[in-house]
């Protein structure tokens, strides 16, 4: 048998078959159209039926020269001479499994925690061949699962640990809640921090097993997996000339859909108008689809005072599905545990063109730990630490990350939108290029409310006038324009009240 190919790993489930289909007929369609490895998982089937099914499945898999893995039942795997066995954390311990099946069979293990990687590193080569990494998202298949979905960020943490522990013999498949609408992003966002490892494949159940046309469903999945880059945003920039972004903002007048905190609503709408955009404030889920289909619309998602996480996630999915850009401002990221949970859920829900925050927020999102006093940053982190945190955020979410403060930092984490299976993108978090945007010290920025939130508004307008290959340039231009307007306002104002007014005036003048 050739070395196993993990690209499209089908797990069976006979409880979800559509009428007129059998497990074997679905399997046959899958294999014919590009499934590369199969796991037979029959949780509620008696041994006799399981063996009969396994024998049939093996015949089919052998025909396509595809490995057949048996879930849980070492005895059945041996009885039918399957290619391998897959066990979970609560099943027979791995060393015993390996002893039972011998050195040649494939042994797979379900992994959700970095400590489990430490364990498999300790065992060394020859024990486990691949791991199923998950649960990535909520799933219908494991309804009683108590596991909290790890998101692509969690998958990346596992990949990073595999690299740190030099587990180069281990292959990986992501599993849990994977469907045609999120696979491309999961592959794009799942990377070890050194950039040398992505997942080897994706594993799924329902999109093939429950499909009325399992062959067609498999072909669609293979097409998605074959793409070399992740294009998630069809931009307004007709050409790739990034010098024209500012003009494009005037020309296209993007509609900036704000889901933002109550403090920012009025100020944000005025800033949008000042730079030549149109604002709309809406938290009505029923109209998101219409809004994102308006030409040149963009979503600014600010979690400052928003209560219903379901609405935020719906907005993210809707804008992503229409390839419209989203700018995320995870306000007060870790100011309370409730905010932390909400922000993390939003972060794992989609692909963001830009993630912008103050220093405390970006430190928090990076995992380095951010100091917050409510929604304000309260740490005294060095520029080097801030750059490292911004690079981590950009890398983890494959986005353009902005960290504000006296010096603003913009990092490009999109790494040319490259989206390889098997190998990594080749660029580490610390390699990511960045720009610093400096000005004289303007403490008044911190004496008006929602100045950071309104920078989000300007970034959203500029991103919308770019495309997914020029987001970085668009964001740098937006942050530079905002800094300039603030510096000019600082020179003319009498205090914080007129600073706010002068800031809007100078945004209006500079955007022209
Ligand atoms: N001392 C400073 N000198 C110059 N510019 C500053 C200074 N402090 C903040 N800024 C600018 O102010 C804007 C907001 O940054 P800040 O880090 O205060 O955001 P924030 O805390 O998210 O704001 P808010 O929560 O009030 O919306 C950015 O454009 C940043 O460049
Ligand atoms: C003051 C405040 N509280 C929640 S959001 C917000 C706006 C500044 O981030
Ligand atoms: Mg803020």
UniProtKB/TrEMBL annotation:
Q: Which reaction does it catalyse?
A: 5-(2-hydroxyethyl)-4-methylthiazole + ATP = 4-methyl-5-(2-phosphooxyethyl)-thiazole + ADP + H(+); 2-(2-carboxy-4-methylthiazol-5-yl)ethyl phosphate + 4-amino-2-methyl-5-(diphosphooxymethyl)pyrimidine + 2 H(+) = thiamine phosphate + CO2 + diphosphate; 2-[(2R,5Z)-2-carboxy-4-methylthiazol-5(2H)-ylidene]ethyl phosphate + 4-amino-2-methyl-5-(diphosphooxymethyl)pyrimidine + 2 H(+) = thiamine phosphate + CO2 + diphosphate; 4-methyl-5-(2-phosphooxyethyl)-thiazole + 4-amino-2-methyl-5-(diphosphooxymethyl)pyrimidine + H(+) = thiamine phosphate + diphosphate
| One of the protein's GO biological processes | thiamine diphosphate biosynthetic process
Thiamine phosphate synthase/TenI domain location is 8-208
Query: Which is an annotated GO molecular function term of this record?
Result: hydroxyethylthiazole kinase activity
Q: Organism's domain of life? A: Eukaryota
> Does this UniProt record's set of keywords contain ATP-binding?
yes
Q: Does the keyword Disulfide bond apply?
A: no
Q: Which UniProt keywords apply?
A: ATP-binding, Kinase, Magnesium, Metal-binding, Nucleotide-binding, Thiamine biosynthesis, Transferase
Question: Gene3D superfamilies given for it?
Answer: 3.40.1190.20, Aldolase class I
Q: In which pathway does it act?
A: Cofactor biosynthesis; thiamine diphosphate biosynthesis; 4-methyl-5-(2-phosphoethyl)-thiazole from 5-(2-hydroxyethyl)-4-methylthiazole: step 1/1; Cofactor biosynthesis; thiamine diphosphate biosynthesis; thiamine phosphate from 4-amino-2-methyl-5-diphosphomethylpyrimidine and 4-methyl-5-(2-phosphoethyl)-thiazole: step 1/1
User: Which SUPFAM superfamilies does the UniProt entry name for this protein?
Assistant: Ribokinase-like, Thiamin phosphate synthase
Q: Which cofactor does it need?
A: Mg(2+)
Name a single GO cellular component.
cytoplasm
The record's Pfam families line, in alphabetical order, gives: HK (PF02110), TMP-TENI (PF02581)
Family from the record: In the C-terminal section; belongs to the Thz kinase family.
HAMAP family cross-referenced by the UniProt entry = TMP_synthase (MF_00097)
Q: Which NCBIfam families match?
A: thiE, thiM
Q: What does this protein do?
A: Condenses 4-methyl-5-(beta-hydroxyethyl)thiazole monophosphate (THZ-P) and 2-methyl-4-amino-5-hydroxymethyl pyrimidine pyrophosphate (HMP-PP) to form thiamine monophosphate (TMP).
Tell me the protein's name.
WGS project CCBQ000000000 data, contig 00016
Organism of this sequence: Kluyveromyces dobzhanskii CBS 2104
